[in-house]
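Justification of resources, computational component.

The compute hours requested in this renewal are based largely on the per-chain cost of generating structure records like the one below. Each record pairs the submitted sequence with a full structure-token output. That output is archived, and it is also reused by downstream analysis tasks.
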Amino acid sequence: MSELDSLIAVAYASEGKQEDVNKVYVTLLRSQLVIPVKKELSLNEEEPFSPLFAKLDDKFFLIAFDSLERLSAWAGSEFDNIGYVDLLGRDFIAGMSDQVYFCLNLGTDYYKEFSPDEVKRLKMVVARVDQLKMQRPG
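The structure output for this chain reads:
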């Protein structure tokens, strides 16, 4: 069980108590994430990578895992056909559209779906931290 698993379990058990949810958010932003991406980019793509999406309940989710082992387990026999990038959670969230759904650790006991409203909230936390860093003297 990862640190994020433990915090997500506590947040679920507390029925979303804000203090527990905030601990999940802060830990997610500080964690190294593994994002599955298309193995090969087409020549006309300008982005350095193209993340994979999963369709769940008629919604498309951007997906990430907190370990390569979890990504590998999720991908199964298709693992060799996909690529992946490692990103700090805060960088992953900062670069994400706030209109998407996001799923952490898809296929595990403690997977977590983040709605666009939660993504917006996470992006606000990142922006606030960045703002505070800019205000610090030298």
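The chain has one domain: 3-135. The first strand starts at residue 32 and ends at 38.
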